[in-house]
Design a protein that fits this description.
disordered C terminus; 12 strands; three-stranded mixed β-sheet; mainly alpha; about 500 residues; globular
Length: about 500
């Protein structure tokens, strides 16, 4: 382009609008073009550089001007070094920011409406279900939709093909099979996930805990709790149920019974030979194969299994201690920054505390008691507002008022007492939100519990091959953590 030679290519896979999302590709591009005079950064379109307005774009222009470099916006025909173009760039950058803000507002409004109406908010439906539609539209995945006139468009319908497979999986769990055994059965039977991928125990665990299995809309992605009507506090129904409430109760109890991993010391798991922390999640960035731990202390390393067996891979290794320490620190920091009701944090808490903390039935009971208490209090407030009414004056009026008030006070006391008792069993997750205490809890776990806790957050860890022999160890460059879907995966520049 313009006779220029391409020196670097920078890409971001995240939004250029959100201020709370890091954009490593953007930062690298700006750093490169301003690191030496006379450089040119070509951007396909202005809104591809930034959608945060003149505040961010103007800062970039100032840095370019100071060093004597420029940015060219190809589709817009703008060049920051051309007199008069800076004003146009400023106007267009603000238009891009406003357009993104409007789009974000419309999207949130549409999602809120769909949620309140019990319609699936978008994206792929859970495995075992399809989304009802009157007719398939261009771009609709036939595997995610079903044409029907009997169900309101946007609601979930049990998939006649994958629904029975999911029911079979549920039956196996209730009968005592482990998540690993059922996952292995799904893989061996040729079943794939809703995205067409290979089943993993964490993926299956998240699916089985979803309230969508009983026809309830999840409160948010990966949540075990249903969204609730703000007035009635009843779960929002989003479509057909694959399971009855009793079946879901048995399923959750079966899952919870297996969620507490053993600790060090006496009892189950004591004396078991430790294994590599990341075995099963660490992958070779060169070929995508699994990597296995090996070697003798202190020189243990993760190595590409395909290469070790003579496969077609250039080879890739990484120090085991360095990888384990880096991933552990990243995961602990992520947990400490989570909201207390995050489903991933609740799964981790079950492991760290040695007992399940996800209790959908208990949560539903507390919600019902809170709603009942609020209703009693509202009725008492309404009655108090009528205290000066003529019909309540005098001795007879006071007696009548007392007859109406006293049952309400008794009901409030009974409900408040029941609510206090229900809340007494709520887990204290404060320790998980304190980095020091979280680290202490992590150090007390054996290798099996640590691996189980990591599995709640991580899909895989990709090891990128060192660029040259003897290169200084840089975990941020060598290791790429792919967070599980339930853990709100972060996207990075490639």
């Amino acid at each position: 382009m313009d006779g220029a030679t391409v020196a670097e290519v920078f890409t971001d896979l995240v939004s250029g609008y959100r201020a709370d999302v890091g954009r490593p590709g953007f930062e690298k591009a700006v750093s490169w073009v301003t690191s030496s005079p006379g450089r040119t950064l070509y951007v396909w379109k202005l809104d591809r550089l930034s959608r945060r307005g003149i505040g961010q774009v103007g800062e970039v222009l100032d840095r370019l001007e100071a060093v004597g470099s420029r940015v060219v916006f190809v589709q817009d025909g703008l060049d920051s070094s051309v007199q008069g173009h800076r004003m146009v760039i400023a106007i267009l950058s603000e238009q891009a920011r406003q357009e993104s803000a409007n789009t974000s507002t419309r999207t949130r409004s549409a999602l809120a409406h769909r949620k309140a109406s019990g319609l699936w908010p978008g994206g792929r439906p859970p495995y075992g279900f399809r989304i009802a539609t009157r007719s398939l539209k261009p771009g609709n995945d036939p595997a995610s939709f079903v044409e029907t006139d009997e169900v309101e468009p946007g609601r979930l319908v049990v998939d006649p093909e994958t629904g029975p497979v999911l029911r079979d999986a549920v039956g196996r769990i209730i009968s005592g099979a482990s998540l690993y055994e059922v996952t292995k059965w799904l893989v061996e039977s040729g079943a794939t996930t809703a995205r067409g991928g290979t089943w993993r125990t964490q993926t299956l665990s998240t699916l089985l805990r979803s309230p969508a299995l009983v026809g309830w809309l999840p409160a948010k992605k990966g949540a075990t709790e249903p969204a609730r009507d703000p007035e009635t506090r009843e779960p929002v129904v989003c479509g057909e149920a694959l399971l009855t409430l009793a079946e879901r109760r048995r399923l959750l109890r079966a899952l919870e019974a297996r969620s507490a991993a053993p600790r060090r010391g006496k009892g189950r798991g004591a004396g078991r030979k430790p294994r590599s922390l990341l075995t099963g999640v660490v992958r070779c960035g060169a070929c995508g194969s699994a990597m296995t731990g090996g070697g003798t202390p202190p020189n243990e390393r993760y190595a590409c299994a395909l290469r070790a067996t003579g496969g077609d891979c250039p080879g890739n290794t990484v120090t085991q201690r360095g990888a384990d320490d880096h991933v552990t620190q990243r995961v602990l920091s992520r947990w400490a920054a989570m909201e207390p009701d995050d489903p991933v944090l609740l799964d981790v808490a079950g492991i760290l505390l040695g007992r399940p903390v996800v209790d959908p039935l208990g949560t539903a009971e507390r919600d019902a008691l809170e709603a009942e208490l609020a209703e009693h209090q509202a009725r008492l407030d309404d009655l108090a507002a009528l205290r000066l009414d003529p019909e309540f004056r005098g001795a007879e009026g006071a007696e009548r008022y007392a007859r109406l008030r006293d049952p309400l006070l008794d009901a409030i006391e009974r409900t408040a007492s029941a609510l206090r008792e229900a809340r007494a069993n709520e887990p204290d997750l404060g320790a998980l939100l304190d980095p020091a205490e979280l680290r202490e809890g992590w150090d007390s776990l054996n290798i099996d519990a640590r691996r189980a806790a990591l599995a709640a957050s991580i899909d895989r860890v990709e090891v990128r091959k060192a660029e040259k022999t003897g290169q200084r160890w840089d975990p941020e460059r060598r290791l790429h953590i792919v967070w599980s879907e339930a853990s709100a995966p972060e996207e990075v520049a490639s």
